[in-house]
Design goal:
13 helices; mainly alpha; 261 residues; 0% strand
């Protein structure tokens, strides 16, 4: 987890807040404690996104999804401290993203976009773009562009957008894939060392019919995974199998009189 540093010791304080949130995700009070910790630090939207996305993922991985600990009313209620409100939103909306509940995420976000309490932060709007892109809604591309104007090189935000483009299979096949490839080479991804980005690239290349390049991307993603990391290895292997099958079918169809097997 990469965190911006606004003063000495801040990154350590944020890491401690994350660790405290994830040490016992079965405890129903951990979201409130995290909200308190980040409120005390006066965390900005980038810091909240970094901590909350990781905490929501950790809770889901341990079988204690944030969706079972919070309810929508807590996320959309008016009158909360702005930092705490953002924490609950980041946690819950991330949980919806990880479960691919795009329609629910869209329905919860749109009233907040029209709220009189001020504009939503960049990460929340990225999650809204994900909800639209994941449903192959073309208006998601416009929301994505607005987010990109503000996001800079904030990796967590860019990952949300990559995820939406990857999920939106019916989103203008060529445009969606090309936008994903362009986004995957934007800083901080231009170093080419992120296995998730390589995984997303592989899917886009497969959709464009560039099968050999797709297989090379997925092999790189597998090689970039930390030793012993099994959290997404099965997804990568499935992507490789799918691409290899698509390539073989394509080759069979190009052979005169060939019969796909």
């Amino acid at each position: 987890m990469t965190l911006p540093v606004r003063r000495p010791g801040r990154a350590l304080a944020l890491l401690r807040a994350r660790a405290r949130a994830t040490e016992n995700t079965a405890d129903p009070l951990w979201p409130a404690r995290l909200a308190g910790d980040l409120r005390e630090l006066d965390a900005d939207w980038q810091e909240s996104a970094e901590v909350c996305a990781d905490a929501s993922w950790a809770a889901r991985a341990s079988g204690n999804s944030i969706l079972g600990l919070l309810h929508p009313g807590q996320v959309t209620a008016a009158g909360l401290d702005p930092v705490a409100a953002r924490v609950y939103r980041h946690l819950y909306f991330s949980g919806l993203r990880y479960d691919f509940r795009c329609a629910t995420l869209q329905s919860l976000t749109e009233p907040l976009l029209e709220s009189e309490h001020g504009p939503l932060d960049c990460y929340s709007r990225a999650l809204y773009a994900f909800a639209l892109l994941g449903q192959s809604r073309p208006e998601g591309l416009a929301v994505m562009d607005e987010v990109l104007d503000e996001a800079g090189d904030h990796a967590k935000t860019l990952h949300v957008l990559l995820h939406g483009l990857w999920l939106g299979l019916d989103l203008d096949l060529v445009q969606g894939a090309q936008r994903l490839l362009a986004l995957s080479t934007r800083p901080p991804f231009d170093a080419g060392t992120d296995p998730i980005v390589a995984f997303r690239r592989a899917g886009a290349l497969r959709r464009l019919g560039r099968y050999d390049a797709s297989l090379a991307a997925i092999d790189r993603a597998l090689d970039l995974l930390p030793p012993g990391d099994t959290s997404i290895q099965a997804d990568l292997v499935r992507e490789r199998s799918l691409t290899a099958t698509a390539r073989d079918l394509h080759h069979h169809l190009l052979v005169p009189g060939g019969t796909p097997t």
